[in-house]
Model the fold of this input.
Amino acid sequence: MTIKHFAALMLAAAAIVAASCTKTAKTTRTPAPAATPIGSFSADSAYRFIEEQVAFGPRVPGTGAHDSCANYIIDKLRAYGLDTMLIQHGTVTAYDGSQMPITNIIAGNKPHVRRRVVLAAHYDTRAWADREHDEIKSTQPIVGANDGGSGVAVLLEIARNIQLRDPEIGVDLIFFDAEDQGAPEELRGDNRGWCLGSEYWAQHREPYRSDNLPAYGILLDMVGGRDARFYYDLFSQENAPTACIKVWGEADALGYGHIFRRQLGGTIIDDHVNMTNRGIPTADVIELYNDATGSFPAYWHTHADDMSIISKSTLQMVGNTVLNVLYKEQL
Ligand SMILES: [Zn+2]
Done:
């Protein structure tokens, strides 16, 4: 993913600074959480799912490691007994005009239940570490523990939970390919080539007809970083307000308002744009920027995006939040 409008980010940052300036000193007392986690999301399990993906190496489309990871996801979903599975193979055109083979993986439970929520993540990792300063390192692909691994891991752990306790509604899980192969940094301003897997999925309109689209979607991308902060992305807030309110509201009720900040970040190009344009308003939960950098975190698109920056605490809070949203949905 990449940032679309940096100006929006700076405006939001200015607004946050302005808001904080008007605060007066007061004693704060942390209230007891209004909600408790439903289900049994295990951060240990999610952490292991990231380790197992990273062990394949960089998951760049067209490589053996990538295909091994796709098979790993499919095997896990089968083991957890999801009712439906669609493996969508295709070919897309990369930013440089080359052809790229892709595989999207779509699984669901309760296919006949009309009210549905879709969760999504991308499983490919970037083909080059273009935020590295070292010239040689910058040409090498990343293992993407957080950017690629974490969203998949949370989805797989949710699949494990669904097997233990079915939500009332139908749930679909989409593992998108080729999200992160957009034009490299040196072609600054060239926004081609991002989110190709979800674009292919949106064009081919599977598995939904236009009259049975899920009510909303939640996209998880970079959701396992240490000290992560999740701000509203402007596109999500404008186009998927219901999903944003459900996710950020539930996080707040669980006592996670310190990481799920109800403040605006920038505008992100990510798979949620294609999902929303397909007719499923989708909120992007993404480590958009943290307080120190004012941008994506420092490890983003570098070789530092490895297991050392993964936090079980962040995974736990994200997993509990999304599971609670699912389990509280009613027909
Ligand atoms: Zn990325």
